[in-house]
Amino acid sequence: MTAPALPPVQYADLGEVRLAYYEVGERTGTPIIFCHGFPELAYSWRHQLEACRAAGRWAIAVDQRGYGGSSRPPKVEDYDIEHLTADLVALLDHVGAKKGVFCGHDWGGFVVWSMAIRHPSRTAGVIGVNTPHNDRAPADPIAIMRNRLGEQMYIVAFQQPDEPERVLEADVEKTMAFFLKRPPEGQAPSAGFASERKPGDPSVFPLLEILKVYDPAYDTRPDFLTPAERQVFVDAFKASGFRGPVNWYRNFTRNWERSAGLDHHIKGIPCLMITAELDAVLPPSAAAHMGGLIDDLETVLVEGSGHWTQQEKPEAVNAFILDWLRRRIG
Description:
Elements: E1 9-13, E2 18-24, E3 32-35, H1 46-54, E4 59-63, H2 81-95, E5 100-105, H3 107-118, E6 123-129, H4 141-149, H5 154-157, H6 163-169, H7 172-179, H8 207-213, H9 227-240, H10 243-249, H11 252-258, E7 271-276, E8 297-302, H12 309-312, H13 314-328
Parallel strand pairs: 3-4, 3-5, 5-6, 6-7, 7-8
Antiparallel strand pairs: 1-2, 2-4
């Protein structure tokens, strides 16, 4: 399948940051705002933008702060969930929309679920792709992950100053080749973040340590990107670096601290959860509890997809999104 091109880039000057975004459709009704994860871009949603355009839907994909053509503020706390959700509210104001349907994958999933918690009056609906909505953790999530998954588990390792950027930026082509692949043949279902180490076992998901010794020449996992598509990601991260994206992870503890007192139950907002059968980090089992947190939830499964679901299986994802939008948003 030939990948669709993105529409021309536009910019929203929001005061503290300038966001690059890509828009299709007429500015009428309620837009769907696509929010990417790590290490991705608005470009990750190119198939969904084209499907929305063909269906006559107003849709926007945004390079979130720290990524692609958007601003890269200097401080770690500039990337906390309050800033990330405030950016989306300001983007709605910029395009003249009262509300939006927010669709997020990976880290973008954390952001869009937070929209329903922090800005429900601006949220017409939420679509999570792979990333489930969770209640507030009983303790600092970094401490929980360190204890359960180990010191080299990538989110824990990303708390270090400078070392994650050094590893990720040492060879950006190799880094993107490592991340952006389909699952290996025969991959078994994963427990994801629910994995438990035995005492003395190595860390789970030690991505930085793997990347240090990774050689793409020996990687037999299938591609889902063409060489030209992969180059879009390579060029973008060579230009921007990884400090902004890694700073999102350095706010896990801050986000948890500042969510005290918030009600994490989502009421009165229709939600769709798209799970991926073969996601090793965010498996379908991670979303099994969500019915107790969301009073209007539909859950669907994309079979045969790994973590990069909207790019690996765009036809299935597009069909689920457009059907749900027709029925629930109008």
